[in-house]
C-alpha cells in the first residue's frame, strides 16, 4: 500500500463539547483548529487549503477564512450533510495528488444544543413534512420499519447498538452521556417515531472539530506520526426520502466498495470501524451496505454486544453520535476517533493492534455517504 500513501492526517482535535455556553460557531472552530494545528506542529500560515460547511452562514468558507486569518489557495465547501467531512478529506487528497496544495485544514462547529438548529424546508420536502412526517426521525423510522417488515429485524436488535455504543462512551471522559444502559432501558424510553425510541436517536449537543491533512512531504515535518488516507469514495443517491430507491440500502454500498478497492483492503483487514450513528438503524443499514454482513443480517450481526468493548467488531469507539456528541454533523468526529485509534491514543477504549480503520459518514436522510480507509505505518 506504500504507493497509495500520498496524504496523511497529521492533526485532529475537538473544541469544547456538550454545552458550550458563551461560545459561538466560529469560536468553536477556531479552538479546534488551533489545537489540531498545534498537535501537527503547524501554524495557520502553513495552511493553503480550507474546508468547512454548515448552515451557520451563507458563505461559511469566507467567514471562517476571515475569522482565522487564512487566505487559502484552494477552498472547499461541499455540503452533503454528516458525510461532508469525509468528502472534504477525499477532495484534499485529490488536490494534494494534483500538486495544488500541501496542507489542508477541515473544520466544523455548531451550537445546536444551546442555540437551536435551523430547519429549512426544501422544494421536495413540501411533499413530506406538511403531511406529518417528523424530520429527520420519521425518515429513519420508515427505513427501520421497512427493514423489520422485510427481514424480521427487531427493536431489541437495534437496542443492542445503543447499549454497545454507550459502553464505549463510558470509557470516554469527553462523552456527553456515560451512564450505562440496558436493552430494556432503550425499549422503555419514549417512542419518538415508531419504531425508534429516544435512546435509538442521537444526541443534540454543541461542539466543533478539526482535521489537518498534509502531503507526504509536508507530513515529514509534522510532530505526529502520519495516519495515511489509503482510499476514499463518495456518492449521494437522493434528497428526499420519498425518492430513495430502497429504504434498506444506502450509498455506502458504492462508496465503501470504491474506498476499499482504492486502498487494496478486504473486510478482514479492517481493525476498527467508525460509522455515522444518527439513529441505531443508520448503523445497521451502513454495516450491511458496506458488506460486513449480507442484506437483512444486520440485526444478527450486532447481537450479543458484538460491537461493544471486548467484542469481536470494535465499532464507534468514542461513543458515537448516540452517546459522545452530535452537534448537527457528526462526520468529522468519526475521522478524529479513527486517527486516535490508529495512533494508539485511546487508553481504556483502545483497540489492540489497530492498523487499518474504516470511516463512513452518512448525510441527509440516508442520502449521502462518504467512506475513508485509513492506515498507519
Automatic annotation (TrEMBL):
* Single GO MF descriptor: acyltransferase activity, transferring groups other than amino-acyl groups
Q: Which CDD domains match?
A: SCP-x_thiolase
Secretion signal span: none
Question: Per UniProt, which keywords does this protein have?
Answer: Transferase
Sequence ranges assigned to domain Thiolase C-terminal in this UniProt record: 233-376
Residue stretches in coiled coil: none
Which top-level group of life is the source organism from?
Bacteria
Under the heading PANTHER family, the entry gives: ACETYL-COA C-ACETYLTRANSFERASE (PTHR42870), NON-SPECIFIC LIPID-TRANSFER PROTEIN-LIKE 2 (PTHR42870:SF1)
Recorded hits in NCBIfam families, A to Z, give:
PRK06158.1
Entry protein name = Acetyl-CoA acetyltransferase
